[in-house]
Design a protein that fits this description.
- The protein is built from 10 helices and 8 strands.
- It has 275 residues and is an alpha/beta fold.
- The strands form 2 sheets. The protein has a 6-stranded mixed β-sheet, sandwiched between helices. A two-stranded antiparallel sheet has the order 7-8.
- Helix 7 packs across helix 9 and helix 7 packs across helix 10.
């Protein structure tokens, strides 16, 4: 059995409950896939986006509605070996990628303040632009459940705000375009388990700012606020096994009657307005 067949079989059988079920549940719960959609599945080369591409291929086989897929890879200035790894994995897993190039890495190389934020914004803009050019109405990103809860906690601890990574968003700069996150309910540990079971080696870190990262394993050596938050959640989980689910549910159970102030459509409201 080749890599493609083994990877697909493991999604249908061994990891169906851990991967396909939450993927399909997110698509249904948040209405991420609709009749006539043309979705640009954005592939960075990492484990999350590569698995997302395979899950999209699998859910399309169920034919619950008609939609088209374009597997979109942006090369923001990868080193040759990193781009080659993406192309090799896409070929081995039978993911027909469309690759386009940009010069984002060069543009942010000399930025000292928040280069990662700027890079992410620029990458998303380029993906929206190319996807729209190709006739797509949505872009799909591979953020998973752990990304969501880490973002919630990071916002509180480092940003002094309560907000979450939404399962879908309307684009503010590209009319008619939406961003969807179908991996929203998939756990990172299950993604890693699928990757390791199939002996797959994906891009881990290809950014110019972290050239020391390995493309072949995740050793957690890159210092970041997200890594600190991930470790904090793991520590809290030792005493409270429900901590992750509680963080996630907290933004579904916001009681505005007990909130001092909040923003709605950019306008700040205070509890004294209606006291």
């Amino acid at each position: 059995m080749d890599k493609k067949d083994r990877a697909e079989a493991s999604i249908r059988k061994k990891y169906h409950k851990q991967l396909f079920t939450p993927f399909a549940r997110a698509c249904k719960t948040y209405r991420l896939i609709e009749e006539g959609d043309h979705i640009a599945v954005c592939i960075s080369g990492g484990k999350d986006s590569m698995l997302m591409a395979k899950l999209f291929q699998e859910i399309r086989k169920h034919r619950q509605c008609r939609f088209d897929l374009t597997f979109l890879v942006m090369d923001p200035g990868y080193h040759k070996e990193n781009r080659a790894l993406i192309e090799s994995n896409a070929g081995a897993l039978d993911i027909p990628v469309t690759i386009f190039e940009s010069s984002i890495f060069d543009a942010v190389d000399n930025i000292e303040k928040n280069p990662c934020y700027l890079c992410a914004r620029m990458r998303r803009g380029h993906l929206y632009s190319k996807a729209k050019e190709l006739g797509c109405n949505k872009i799909a990103l591979g953020h998973h459940y752990d990304d969501v809860i880490e973002t919630i906690l990071m916002g509180m601890l480092y940003g002094a705000q309560i907000q979450t990574m939404m399962p879908k968003l309307h684009s503010t700069n590209f009319e008619g375009m939406e961003l969807i996150r179908p991996m929203y309910l998939v756990r990172e540990e299950d993604i890693c388990a699928w990757r390791d079971y199939n002996d797959l080696h994906f891009l881990q870190c290809a950014c110019h700012f972290t050239d020391t990262c390995s493309s072949f394993h995740e050793d957690g050596t890159t210092p970041s606020k997200r890594l600190e938050t991930k470790k904090l959640i793991a520590a809290l989980k030792k005493d409270n096994p429900y901590v992750e689910a509680n963080i996630f549910k907290a933004v579904e159970n916001v009681n505005l009657s007990t909130v001092i102030a909040y923003k709605k459509d950019g306008i700040r409201h205070h509890f004294l307005e209606s006291y």
